[in-house]
């Protein structure tokens, strides 16, 4: 993470005692100074680096000239989740990674500036501009109320279509709501930006699981976007996983956020896996009062799939990393009492292109723990997708063209369900691209 | 991206000519050719003043380099100096291009900038006729270029003399069928005198300012002043953010001393600058250096920002704003002597640099005490005269401000 983020990070000792955001609001003077550093480059490379296509240099110039109203308009034109992405985008891979200042001094902290604009305008009561529904507008359904489905709905509504989002869970937002912990992304921001989407005239129906696309057709929906994400946790079936105190990562994160009761984690927590979800589980466990949190990962530092920024954050908050270690079985009578692990070494590359971990015989040891969280990654719900009539590849991903077309006329898909779990902004970009394609499809019809 | 370049709030009538927005490209490098002006119009500019035309037969040969600039902190080109002459393209070429621009952009305003020698009535009138016949919507007489041209009896020497200013205005007005703008130099003791002369000559509008005479610096290795043209230099004209205060004063003085409409120029780069020029009396505004720095594309943020500002303040039109701040300029004598201010330092924001203490100690009234152990300044309200120096030197935004006070001033001195 670059630039401003350091100056707004709360001290670790304070922040791990609560669930409030790690980063405080971006102060005005820091934002305007950071904005001064933007060169207003030609064919701004930062904008090209943004999957959702935000016109970065244009909005930064508006900060610079004191016109935040235009700044938020410019961001929202391309990305309805301005405040969300300003917080959770791995921007080093996107806009910030492209900033030409990196060759002179340091890149402009675009993400913090976007967050600043979104927060200030939200406080001022930002409302999206009203849009007219087209006469004879066709009905379109977005299945799944995550960033992909909601973004698709926004861009369809802006083109005058009549859009309904169907979300199976109690709240919309997908992983933004149920996955990402509130200390990285406050729920108020997610809710506020979804409210703005509703204000555009998008209907968001929650508590409705869609299992049959033909029924939607029968109800008069002329096109469907499927953005159901990847919610099935990979599960390692070793001995002891049915003991109390063994959690699936998603269940754990959701319970930590919404209860009904927050998980009681005890003194020592082992998180198995080293992706972003594992890092979030570790951070949540810290905030639930664990005395010791350990990430257990079978490969080495270089192979950890989590982003550098997330690893750094987790490390800073005091989580230990037990690398080249794999759990063999979980021990306990009724509740978890310990986990037996084995040391690993790295062998030649496997089919994933990473070195294969190989157990070191006789290196077993027992670690006393009170909670084990399995965070081994997510996959799609193949059964659901088959029921919806969608073809999947070997990895269970829905196959689509660039614009989200599935091959079934009028059915489009995007987001985690097609890429297996990437980033919110890529899900938004997929929803946006599909909206364009759906619009064209409906005009042709 | 959609922007406000065509926002109806920004429509403005200037001497009977309709502009979609008040932003005009000043006669300068951004209007070097017709092709460039058409691109600027594609981007959204309301009007453009062609690079100044001189009578056929005047030889214009430019030098290189012709620019020098002063950076200030992170701001590059805080002041720009130029020694560029008028257009080096022929009159006929320009006349053809004016027609082309108007055909492609009938709703955008093309203004012909012309210049001739002080006594050359025939030249002034001929250029006026030819430019208006070519289709220009307005004429701007450049009486303000401070370098090169004065040696030929043209440019700023004209608007440094009230009589010459008046005559030229009359000559041009005698043959003009389109509105006439007189562009004045700021390089004069009292711009009100030449502004009134332009009005007396019948000017429809005044534009101000042309560049401020200056010298950007000296190359300390070669000992040649800047810009160095193969070892020699000459005085030039300054523009850009640094000249804005000079221009604002000129505009305000012209507004208060004539009835002419005003096109404000000098250091405009953001919508805020433009709003200030309008509030001090300008009906349209011209931009040169900021476009040289950032390109035509700044028209989008100029229009977005100005229209948002107007909405927030419920101004129904540009005309509603013109001169509102100028009314609040008065004689020094009329300013309140009862208004008592003292410095107030925000302890939470203070970083303990001590600059306010040093400034007050060495350049004011020793009213800020300094605790060296805690690195903490504190204001002695009885000694503070409220001059405000401390608030200007403080490096932290909003840390030192002035507040009203009932504590009487006790003169220590
Ligand atoms: C713990 C965690 C942390 C993350 N951190 C980041 C981060 O820092 N930055 C980042 O950019 N990305 C992050 N991501 C990834 C990001 O959240 C996802 O890529 C993004 O949410 C995908 O959006 P989506 O709309 O495709 O799917 P989802 O967000 O999963 O939304 C799909 C929605 O569809 C609903 N649904 C499923 N089936 C049905 C059905 N049959 N009928 C109706 N509704 C249905 C689901 O309930 C869900 O609400 C993180 C993910 C996780 C799990
Ligand atoms: C390089 C350069 C050339 C200029 N040439 C002309 C000119 O030919 N005619 C003219 O009227 N003004 C000319 N000007 C002055 C500008 O029109 C304008 O009055 C001045 O630059 C102040 O505005 P600014 O601060 O926006 O640049 C020139 C300015 C520059 C910088
Ligand atoms: S700006 Fe263009 S014309 Fe001027 S010196 Fe640079 S390259 Fe040459």
| Average pLDDT metric of chain A | 95
Instruction: Name the CATH superfamily classification of the largest domain in chain B.
Output: Aldolase class I
In total, the number of domains of chain A comes to 3
| Strand segment tally of chain B | 20
What's the story with the biggest beta sheet of chain B?
8 strands, parallel, barrel
Q: Please give the CATH class of the largest domain in chain B.
A: Alpha Beta
Q: Helical amount among residues of chain A, as a percent range?
A: 25-40%
Number of distinct helices of chain A: 19
N- to C-terminal separation of chain B?
Answer: 62 Å
Biggest interface and residues each = A-B, 17 and 18 residues
Number of strands of chain A: 16
Q: What are the low-pLDDT stretches of chain A, counting only 5+ consecutive residues below 50?
A: none
Shape of chain B: globular
User: Biggest sheet of chain A, in brief?
Assistant: 5 strands, parallel
User: Helix count of chain B?
Assistant: 12
- Major sheet of chain B: order of its strands? 3-4-7-8-9-10-15-16
Oligomeric nature of the chains: heterodimer
Strand fraction of chain B equals 15-25%
Going by CATH, what is the homologous superfamily of the largest domain in chain A?
FAD/NAD(P)-binding domain
The CATH topology of the largest domain in chain B is given as TIM Barrel
Shape of chain A: globular
Description:
The complex is a heterodimer of chains A (445) and B (413). Chain A is built from 19 helices and 16 strands. Chain A has 445 residues and is α/β, with parallel strands linked by helices. In chain A, the strands form 4 sheets. Chain A has a 5-stranded parallel beta sheet. A 5-stranded parallel beta sheet of chain A has the order 6-14-7-8-9. In chain A, helix 15 (276-287) links the parallel strand 7 (268-272) and strand 8 (292-296). The mean pLDDT of chain A is 95. Chain B has 413 residues and is α/β, with parallel strands linked by helices. Chain B folds into 2 domains: 4-328, TIM Barrel; 337-404, Alpha-Beta Plaits, CATH 3.30.70. Helices cover 30% and strands 20% of the residues of chain B. The N and C termini of chain B lie far apart (62 Å). At the A-B interface, helix 3, helix 5 and helix 6 of A face helix 9 of B. The complex binds flavin-adenine dinucleotide, flavin mononucleotide and iron/sulfur cluster. Residues 26-29, 51-52, 80, 82, 84, 86, 113, 142, 145, 183, 210-211, 239-240, 243, 265-268, 287-290 of chain B line the site of flavin mononucleotide.
């Amino acid at each position: 993470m670059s630039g401003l983020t350091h100056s707004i990070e709360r001290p670790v000792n304070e922040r791990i005692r609560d669930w409030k955001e790690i980063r405080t609001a971006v102060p005005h003077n820091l934002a305007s100074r950071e904005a001064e550093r933007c060169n207003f480059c030609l064919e701004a490379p930062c904008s090209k680096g943004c999957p959702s296509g935000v016109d970065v240099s244009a909005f930064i110039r508006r900060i610079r000239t004191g016109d935040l109203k235009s700044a938020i308009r410019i961001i929202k034109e391309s990305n309805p989740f301005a405040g969300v992405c300003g917080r959770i985008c791995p921007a080093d891979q996107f806009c910030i990674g492209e900033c030409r200042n990196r060759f002179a001094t340091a890149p402009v902290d675009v993400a913090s500036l976007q967050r600043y604009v979104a927060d200030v305008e939200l406080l001022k009561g930002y409302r999206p501009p009203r849009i007219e529904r087209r006469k004879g507008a066709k009905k379109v359904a977005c299945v799944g109320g995550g960033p992909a489905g909601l973004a698709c709905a926004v861009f369809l509504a802006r083109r005058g279509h009549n859009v309904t989002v169907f979300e199976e869970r109690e709240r919309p937002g997908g992983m933004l709501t149920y996955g990402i912990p509130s200390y990285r992304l406050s729920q108020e921001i997610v809710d506020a930006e979804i409210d703005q989407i509703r204000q555009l005239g998008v209907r968001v129906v929650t508590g409705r699981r869609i299992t049959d696309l033909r029924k939607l057709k029968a109800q008069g929906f002329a096109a469907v976007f499927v953005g159901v994400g990847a919610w099935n946790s990979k599960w390692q079936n070793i001995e002891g996983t049915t003991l109390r105190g063994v959690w699936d990562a998603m269940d754990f994160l959701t319970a930590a956020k919404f209860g009904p009761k927050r998980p009681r984690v005890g003194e020592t927590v082992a998180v198995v896996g080293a992706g972003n979800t594992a890092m979030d589980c570790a951070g949540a466990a810290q905030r639930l009062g664990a005395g010791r949190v350990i990430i257990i990962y079978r490969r080495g530092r270089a192979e950890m799939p989590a982003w550098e920024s997330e690893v750094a954050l987790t490390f800073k908050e005091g989580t230990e990393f037990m690398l080249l270690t794999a759990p063999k079985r979980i021990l306990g009578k009724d509740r978890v009492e310990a986990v037996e692990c084995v040391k690993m070494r790295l062998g030649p590359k496997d089919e994933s292109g990473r070195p294969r971990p190989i157990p070191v015989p006789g290196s077993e040891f027992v670690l006393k723990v009170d909670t084990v969280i399995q965070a081994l990654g997510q996959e799609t719900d193949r059964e659901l997708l088959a029921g919806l009539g969608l073809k999947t590849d070997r990895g269970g991903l829905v196959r689509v063209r660039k614009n989200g077309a599935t091959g079934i006329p009028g059915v489009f898909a995007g987001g985690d369900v097609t890429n297996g779990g990437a980033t919110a902004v890529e899900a938004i970009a997929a929803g946006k691209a599909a909206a364009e394609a759906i619009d064209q499809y409906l005009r042709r019809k | 991206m959609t922007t406000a370049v065509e926002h109806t709030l920004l429509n403005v009538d200037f001497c009977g000519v309709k502009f979609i927005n008040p932003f005009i490209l000043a006669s300068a490098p951004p209007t070097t050719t017709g092709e460039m002006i058409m691109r600027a119009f594609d981007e959204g500019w309301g009007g453009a003043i062609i690079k100044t035309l001189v009578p056929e037969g005047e030889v214009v040969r430019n030098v290189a380099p012709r620019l020098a600039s002063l950076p200030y902190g992170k701001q590059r080109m805080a002041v720009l100096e130029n020694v560029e002459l008028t257009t080096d393209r022929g009159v006929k070429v320009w006349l053809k291009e004016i027609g082309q621009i108007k055909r492609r952009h009938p709703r955008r305003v093309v203004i012909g900038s012309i210049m001739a020698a002080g006594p050359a009535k025939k030249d002034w009138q001929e250029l006026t006729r030819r430019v208006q016949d070519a289709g220009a919507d307005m004429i701007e007489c450049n009486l303000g270029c401070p370098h090169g041209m004065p040696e030929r009896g043209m440019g700023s020497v004209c608007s440094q003399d009230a009589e010459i200013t008046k005559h030229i205005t009359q000559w041009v007005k005698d043959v003009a069928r389109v509105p006439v703008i007189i562009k004045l130099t700021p390089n004069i003791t009292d711009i009100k005198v030449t502004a009134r002369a332009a009005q007396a000559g019948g000017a429809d509008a005044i534009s101000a300012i042309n560049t401020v005479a200056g010298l950007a610096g000296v190359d300390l290795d070669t000992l040649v002043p800047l810009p160095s043209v193969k070892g020699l230099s000459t005085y030039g004209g300054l523009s850009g953010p640094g000249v804005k205060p000079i221009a604002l004063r000129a505009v305000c003085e012209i507004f208060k001393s004539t009835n002419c409409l005003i096109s404000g120029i000098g250091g405009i780069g953001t919508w805020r600058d433009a709003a200030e020029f309008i509030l001090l009396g300008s009906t349209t505004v011209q931009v040169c250096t900021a476009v040289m720095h950032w390109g035509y594309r700044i028209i989008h943020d100029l229009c977005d920002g100005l229209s948002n500002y107007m909405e927030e303040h419920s101004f129904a039109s540009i005309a509603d704003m013109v001169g509102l701040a100028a009314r609040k300029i008065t004689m020094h004598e009329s300013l309140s002597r009862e208004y008592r201010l003292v410095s107030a330092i925000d302890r939470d924001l203070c970083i303990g640099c001590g600059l306010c203490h040093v400034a007050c100690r060495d350049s004011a009234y020793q009213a800020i005490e300094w605790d060296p152990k805690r690195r903490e300044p504190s204001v002695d309200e009885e000694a503070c005269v409220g001059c405000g120096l401390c608030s200007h030197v403080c490096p932290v935004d909003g840390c030192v401000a002035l507040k009203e006070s009932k504590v009487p001033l006790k003169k220590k001195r």
